[in-house]
Design a protein that fits this description.
By secondary structure, this protein is of the alpha+beta class. The chain is built from two helices and four strands. It has a four-stranded mixed beta sheet with strand order 2-1-3-4, sandwiched between helices. It is globular.
Length: about 70
């Protein structure tokens, strides 16, 4: 589904955990790509971030958010 939020995560990243928790609390459906399980996806993360290897990276349509900034 193209309108599904996609979030790239890593288990050692507390910001990725916080981003997932926020989406779950808001009852927003999302697809998680765990980079420890899918290391080939780092290439896409680097493309989305301009070369950075960081998480979380959230993709919602054309909007790409690098990092987690919390509510408000």
């Amino acid at each position: 589904m193209d309108d599904m939020i996609l979030i790239y995560t890593h288990p050692d990243c507390t910001y990725a955990d916080a981003a997932k928790d926020e989406l779950q609390r808001a009852d927003v459906p999302f697809k998680e790509i765990d980079l420890s399980i899918n290391p080939e996806a780092w290439e896409e993360v680097e493309r989305l971030t301009g070369g950075e290897r960081t998480t979380p990276v959230t993709v919602e349509g054309q909007l790409v958010t690098v990092g987690f900034h919390g509510v408000g």
